[in-house]
């Protein structure tokens, strides 16, 4: 770990350098002994203008509920310790954390420059509802994978262009849309369980106006549209209407 710290110091704290790095990408273990030292170096580089943005991935092992709560608390403590890091983060990837609603709200609102967000097995309680109403958000890419939300309500994400949702556990449609005027690409990938209801596409897409690419993959399971057919396919739609599609009824 001392070698990693030395390399970070060379890159971020070398004296006499006038050039600046536009972006620093960090893939760090949350419990790593080197974490504090490296993040301090990055924050100093942000403070003196050498670093403009941060891409941050904090992978953790998938474990039980108690561990998920602990991961969330550790993440919250980490972000409180390095607020400058969070404010300059443009790409954030989190795994296996169960936040409370206030923690999730603080996390999202503190990432003022965030453009790319990935949540893998993260939630605010099993079958809870995540409401995102962020009119000043810069998020353009959102990926939700194996998250235990009953629904994610995207009330306002004005810059969102690409949304990927995979392996949800809700009984009904996992998403609802409010103000998402830039959403062009939507991917839904999930193998439907027996207790999950079919999706009504017209209801699911209500609130979207600019969808140009819609990908649906339900592993041969049920998706119900207004014509009462069941589909397992990839949809590609243009803003003027439905384009090419492959279907099995």
Automatic annotation (TrEMBL):
InterPro entries: LRR_dom_sf (IPR032675)
This protein's name: Uncharacterized protein
Organism: Eleusine coracana subsp. coracana
Lineage: Eukaryota, Viridiplantae, Streptophyta, Embryophyta, Tracheophyta
